[in-house]
mannose-1-phosphate guanylyltransferase
Amino acid sequence: MKLDLKTELSRRSSAAQTVVPVILSGGSGTRLWPVSRESFPKQFWPLASEKPLIVETALRTFGGEFAAPMVVCNEAHRFMVAEQLREAGVAGARIVLEPMGRNSAPAIAAAALILAQDDPQAVICMMAADAAIPDGQALRDALLTAAEVARTGMVVTLGIHPTKPETGFGYIEMGAPLEKTPQAHKLTRFIEKPDAAFAEKLIATGGVLWNSGIFVFTVSTLLEELQAHAPHVLTTARKAVEARTTDLDFIRLGREEFAACPNISLDYAVAEHTTRAAVVPVNFHWSDVGSWSALWDLGEKDSGGNVAVGDVLLEDAKNCYVRSDGMLTAVLGLDDVVVVVTEDAVLAAHKDHAQDVKKIVEKLKAEKRPEATTHNLCYRPWGHYEVLILGDRFQVKRIVVKPGEKLSLQSHFHRAEHWVVVEGTAIVTRDHEEIMVRENESIYLPLGCKHRLYNPGRVPMTLIEVQSGAYLGEDDIVRYEDTYGRS
């Protein structure tokens, strides 16, 4: 993702002719628990297709009239973002790291301030990383129409023609068509997520659209509107941008400065107050993938109306969404239910309560259960690990290291480790030694020794790690050297 001078100058010279997608990837997707969790939220999962949602989002607007994307994400997810975009062939992306979540207004403000240094008149297309839009060409056409309107100084959003009285979305009331661009309309007002009765009334009355959360504007228009309606957001975001540092290929915003930003969405900060709002109505299918019932809507159904994903067996079931990421899951004689099975948790709910899954997560957090936020399978920049067994004073993990990657040089105060290589070859640093460990060989790392794991091969290296000690938490790590800049 590093650009040479020639590439950078070319990118800057062409900025005025292109639309810059800014993908916001800050959500945790708690309504899709137990698959989506803070450590690995829904945008990184292949939920609506065979590709992760963030990859689908990036590919919809990659190439042609669209510049390489800018992604604003949680710093804890930076390597997942970079790796998934790299694997998808999305070259040239800039990744901006938020030290903590502050909602969409500070995130897009920071992105706009960075882009302003290239071209204040550049057109930004702001999109969430986790929406499903099967018709990518229809989206591109709508965005280019919106960009045309945005160049006149308007704040433009895409509005989805509603198909039912949905209570999980906000609504937009549209006015008359714009004179020069009749495909777009004046935006009369935003309407909060309604209850069922009000949603039915809105649909019956007509003239309303679902709020997609996709906004298009020029950099200068957004900064002017922030100054007018949310000056504190702009001021604090500017300080965070000025305090930014470069971390490998990432742009890291100033931590203390970004922490001072208000936690507010762009809808509340600007869109609901601006007098320059317009909407482009669209008919393509769109989903915010905000619940398991939304994935049932998107999924391919059998003759009984069921959507089955993974190792699933259904008998006399109707209109169910059943997903298994591990063991065989059988559902018998149930209607309108959601059943989701992962390695360490099972969710069973009526589809009518799909929006309430976040209440389960809140209870798990209150009980300080790790299942609320982390998976047994945890991704790291060097690969991933999976907890197989957790007992009293011992833990067993499966560790997979990508070719050419290495863990940090580290030690532990409270545990010793025994490594058994089951696939590939490892070079292990143990204090002052470097030891080659091949398949079916093992090595012991006593408590307190400095150690490091490196995969010198061309294929992933897999080992089984057995930890033993009084404390086995991931925070019992002292890092001395790290390729990825972690402390």
Observations:
- Residues 5-16 have pLDDT under 50 and may be disordered.
